[in-house]
Design a protein that fits this description.
Layout lengths: L1 E2 L6 E2 L7 E6 L3 H4 L4 H4 L11 H13 L3 E7 L10 H4 L11 E2 L2 E2 L21 E5 L10 H8 L3 E7 L1 H14 L3 E10 L3 H16 L3 E3 L1 H15 L7
Parallel strand pairs: 3-4, 3-8, 4-7, 8-9, 9-10
Antiparallel strand pairs: 1-2, 5-6
Helix pairs in contact: 3-8
The structure holds tricarbonodiimidic diamide.
């Protein structure tokens, strides 16, 4: 089965258990006032637009018992995994580690570092705490994907041209077949989102594929129904 996608159809794995939904950094730091995204001078409200669509995709993937990986960009309280170059970047009033209205900015365990309530991980789902923009840098993500036999990734979350694109490029270099879900990722800069989607699928899909959520949801449920005709999950 394939998903209608750009630059051409995306082939699903023969066994859907080889597919994972990756949700990048849907944490309060980036989506709510008073967090890291706000401190960097961004209009954080515009990222909210994708939440219902991403929730619908997440519910579908959960109903099919497929793998879900959440990531959170964060640093340890002692900042030992935050390079000074990262901390000093930007002209915001609050830097990583400073006390803000939702706790210390981008520090693991602080209120602002939590995933937004609509997308809270289930206890059965993996959460990757990542100090970089890419989800593979300095994390166990590659080992976890290998252990689960994952070969295909649906990539979503924020922000499109920063952590989402970096992660997709890292995954592509590691041999994963990646599809970025167009209306399940958002940027503070609409033009950067559009440019990222075009960069991903240019040159015959040099980084991977893009498709809207509804195309993904329709094909996942159809494929699962064919594989398990008597299942009530779909
Ligand atoms: N600032 C910005 O657009 N993004 C980040 O700092 N991190 C993520 O993209 N998650």
């Amino acid at each position: 089965m394939t998903i209608p996608a750009l630059p051409y159809d995306y082939e699903l794995p023969a066994d859907l258990n080889q597919l994972a939904l990756v949700i990048i950094d849907m944490q309060r730091d980036f989506l709510e006032p008073g967090g890291f995204g706000d401190a960097l001078g961004n209009d954080v409200q515009r990222l909210q637009a994708i939440v219902p669509t991403l929730k619908h995709l997440l519910d579908t993937v959960r109903s099919l018992n497929l793998t879900v990986i959440h990531t959170i960009e964060c640093h340890t309280p002692d900042l030992s995994n935050c390079p000074p170059a990262k901390r000093s970047r930007g002209n915001g009033t609050l830097k990583i580690g400073d006390a803000g209205p939702m706790g210390r900015i981008l520090i693991q365990g602080e209120p602002g570092n939590g995933i937004i309530p609509e997308l809270l991980p289930l206890s059965s789902e993996t959460v990757i705490y990542k100090p970089g923009k890419g989800a593979f840098y300095n994390t166990d993500l590659e080992r976890i994907l290998q252990e689960k036999g994952i070969t295909h990734l649906l990539i979503t979350g924020v922000t499109t041209e920063v952590c989402v694109q970096t992660t997709m490029r890292e995954a592509n270099d590691r041999g994963y077949e990646c599809l970025m879900v167009e209306d399940c990722t958002e940027s503070y800069f609409p033009a950067f989102k559009q440019a990222t989607l075009e960069m991903v699928r240019a040159q015959g899909g040099i980084v991977g594929w893009t498709a809207p959520a509804q195309a993904v949801i329709t094909r996942l449920t159809t494929t699962a129904a064919i594989a398990h005709p008597f299942s009530t999950a779909v």
